[in-house]
Please model this.
Amino acid sequence: MSFGTLETPVGTLGVTAAGGAITSVGWVHATAEQDVDGLVAEALNQLEAYFAGQLRRFDVPFDLGKQTEATRAVLMTLYDTVGYGDSITYGQLAERSGTDVPARGIGAIMGANPVPLIVPCHRVLASDGLGGYSGGAPGEGLVTKRRLLEFEGALPAPLF
Model:
């Protein structure tokens, strides 16, 4: 297993790899001991390029772990079809994935995404607003989601 961190505009991200794939991306609050292999280094480089505005799609191998067939289908549909600067509603993603997962279930799947940013769950919105987001510092999920969407140009920056 390999692990590394990166300071970003939305907090410190930790990236873990095992078995030749990225297995988790998440916000960390204390820098743990790092053991960076080539794959984690590449993921950190791609994250750095993303936040520098130089990368719009991640292409490191990732592993979603043990998931139901429907969960895997939803996450892969998101990864494959919702690009940088775009967004989709929970209901639209449910329909696009071809599963029978209801919109509320899509929200739960997004909250359990093991590789946020790589699989861009921040691009999934409620039909009447941002919806939820489990990333970012504790209590800062929606602020983090808004910042990511503004950064990508999917939301206008606030006037104040």
